[in-house]
């Protein structure tokens, strides 16, 4: 790749970032968004987090090593979901997940 190609790609990327992140701030400044749109925007962070977690828990060859090695992260995740519903604390979720996964590796 030559330097001129690099600078063209860099400029396109910078322009795309500017258009997608900065322009909406100026366009929507001082305007009230509809309630349904605000509710939809509140669903973006949980959906992104769920996609990241599902990507780590569910892999194409997860059962190649057997059932139990594939089931351990799923069981730990289930315990984390229960702890999250009861405590609503990220710290307790992390502690419970690590402890349960460690105990499952001892079995």
Task: Report on this structure.
The chain is mostly helical. The chain has 2 domains: 31 residues; 75 residues, no CATH class. Helices cover 80% and strands 0% of the residues. α4 runs antiparallel to α5. The chain is flat, with a radius of gyration of 22 Å.
What keyword list fits this structure?
single chain, 107 residues, 5 helices
- Assembly status: single chain
Structural class: mainly alpha
* Global Rg: 22 Å
* C-alpha termini separation: 53 Å
Q: How much helical structure, as a percent, in the residues?
A: over 70%
Helical element count? 5
Indicate the proportion of strand residues. Answer: under 5%
Provide the residue-averaged pLDDT: 91
Low-pLDDT runs: none
Order of helices and strands: HHHHH
Categorize the overall geometry: flat
Please provide a brief summary of the model:
It is built from five helices and no strands. It has 107 residues and is mostly helical. The radius of gyration is 22 Å and the shape is flat.
Strand and helix layout:
Layout (H helix, E strand, L loop, with lengths): L2 H26 L6 H8 L1 H14 L9 H21 L2 H17 L1
Helix pairs in contact: 4-5
